Amino acid sequence: MRFVTNRLLNPISRPLLPFRFLLVSVHLYFGSDSKEDMERRALETIAVARWAAKRRDSKNAFVSDIIALGDFNLPSSPTTTRSQSGRRSDM
Description:
There is one protein chain. It is built from one helix and four strands. By secondary structure, it is an alpha+beta fold. It has a domain at 22-74. The strands form two sheets. A two-stranded parallel sheet has the order 1-2. Strands 3-4 form a two-stranded antiparallel ribbon.
């Protein structure tokens, strides 16, 4: 079976190669909205990024694409907090 693709979306014609990647499940410290807890989560996020970069750059790396997903417990902006329902809302 062959799918027809739009050349505008895929201007380079090449065979599809297998895409290998590593999924990393992340759940950072929950804590509160205090400055200290937010800084802890920010540092943990940096640690995950550094680990992924070191792993990717290792001569023994199995894959070069690492995707971290999960609950980073970081607000999308400094003014965003969680309401009692668990949804994010702007203050």
